[in-house]
Design goal:
Low-confidence stretches: none
CATH architecture of the largest domain: Beta Barrel
Number of domains: 4
CATH superfamily of the largest domain: Trypsin-like serine proteases
Radius of gyration: 24 Å
Helix content: 10-25%
CATH topology of the largest domain: Thrombin, subunit H
CATH class of the largest domain: Mainly Beta
Largest sheet: 7 strands, antiparallel
Length: about 425
């Protein structure tokens, strides 16, 4: 066994997470396991976003010597399915514990057929190593709800491997035989055998640096176009090969829509740089080109529409998920999620006010009044629900002095009134 690989094995950890879930009109606690790899002497641990999220109320890390220590969430990025933890160094020092850390390798140098190893805790079985090859070093797929309902995969391609990856491997390292981490195991392909996917170390390195720089999150820019590869469509659009990217759709109300861009337009240049989106694997770099612009930046786009070429100026806005903050209003038997700007546009709502009902507890006031899953609560006692604080304050007042509470609810684009009785 090479020395680097031995050090790698001593840096892989099991992660136990206890987190809160707002389901069925109440607050519940759930548990899960995953894997991670220690990246630094100060205890930074890289794992998946679907292993450890902001919902976590307790995180414990089992080191290679089987000792268990607590950890905190440092950063979270569902767009790439990566999360960063930090081991409690005070506890480590107090207990005289030690750990090793691994080094990131260069995923850009990988090639199909290269031998790799997946290390982690499949099904909770710690210190497990499986062997395989890189079966594709540049696989593209975007998963709109891949991380507990959050979007992922728009800003990276994936490493495909036949090294066995099972539940519990998530967040563990994919490594070369010298112990260099060239990927973070993330998922398998449902219904297939020997199809596992890892996030390349090049993506991980960029995201970790951003998390540490920006205090836990990654700020990305957004203009509201949904791209599609041009493969086999060049003749239809009268384009030369390797020229342009198809704008498959434009989100209503987005900066691109306001600027006048339309579905079916061909993006030729961005800030003067030529765009080549012929193949699916070329889409993430183009999306990153937009995402890496400062929020509020003016982008110059040259677009082909029919036989004409037009120039547009689009001002970027901050990228947001469709999934808003969640909460449980247990006295009423309601679980709710804040309407996000992305959700409002996706569902053609007038604005991002209100909360979506994601769960109702049978027998509680909300269910008795007729409130249902999928309803959008827009007002409480004639007060607009502009944030979760509004609905939290209303329930607190209800707990202090139970009185009938009036909900204005949007269902199938119609407004209805419901009275919740004590």
């Amino acid at each position: 066994m090479k020395r680097g690989f031995k050090q790698l094995l001593e840096s892989v950890v099991k992660i136990d997470v206890r987190e809160v879930a707002f389901e069925a009109g109440t607050k519940r606690f759930t548990g899960g396991i995953g894997s991670g790899v220690i990246l630094s002497a100060d205890g930074l641990v890289l794992t998946n976003a679907h292993v450890a999220s902001p919902r976590a109320v307790e995180i414990n890390v089992t080191l290679a010597n089987l000792e268990r220590v607590s950890a905190k969430l440092v950063g979270w990025d569902h767009w790439t399915d990566l999360a960063l933890l930090r081991i409690d160094l005070v506890e480590v020092k107090r207990r005289s514990l030690k750990f090793s850390h691994a080094d990131l390798g260069e995923s850009g140098k990988l090639y199909p057929g290269q031998e790799v190893f997946a290390v982690g805790t499949p099904h909770g079985l710690t210190r497990t190593v499986t062997r395989g090859i890189i079966s594709n070093n540049n696989r593209y797929f975007e998963d709109t709800r891949g991380v507990n309902g959050y979007e992922t995969g728009a800003f990276n391609t994936w490493l495909q491997t036949d090294a066995a990856i099972n539940p519990g491997n998530s967040g563990g390292p994919l490594v070369t035989n010298d112990g260099k981490v060239i990927g973070i195991s993330s998922r398998t392909y449902l219904g297939a055998n020997n199809l596992g996917f890892a996030i390349p170390s090049s993506t991980a390195q960029r995201v970790v640096a951003g998390m540490l720089l920006e205090g836990g999150g990654i700020t990305r820019s957004y203009i509201g176009i949904v791209p599609k590869e041009l493969q086999d469509l060049e003749n239809f659009y009268a384009l030369a090969l390797n020229t342009g990217m198809l704008i498959n759709s434009v989100e209503p109300g987005s900066p691109a829509a306001k600027a006048g861009l339309r579905s079916g337009d061909i993006l030729l240049t961005l800030n003067g740089a030529s765009i080549d989106g012929r193949f699916p694997e070329q889409l993430p770099p183009i999306q990153n080109l937009i995402a890496n612009q400062p929020v509020g930046a003016s982008l110059k786009l040259t677009v082909k529409r029919g036989t004409e070429t037009r120039d547009y100026t689009v001002v970027t806005e901050k990228l947001e998920s469709r999934v808003g903050e969640e909460w449980a209003l247990e006295k009423w038997g309601l679980s709710v999620r804040k309407v996000s700007r992305a959700y409002a546009r996706e569902n053609q709502l007038d604005d991002a006010s209100g909360v979506i009902v994601i769960g109702v507890q049978p027998g509680f006031p909300a269910a008795a009044a007729g409130v249902s899953r999928g309803d959008i609560i827009t007002k409480i006692n004639d007060q607009l629900v502009l944030s979760l604080d509004v609905i939290k304050a209303a329930q607190a007042a209800y707990e202090t002095k139970p009185e009938p509470t009036l909900f204005e609810v949007q269902r199938n684009r119609r407004l209805s009134l419901y009275i919740l009785k004590p």
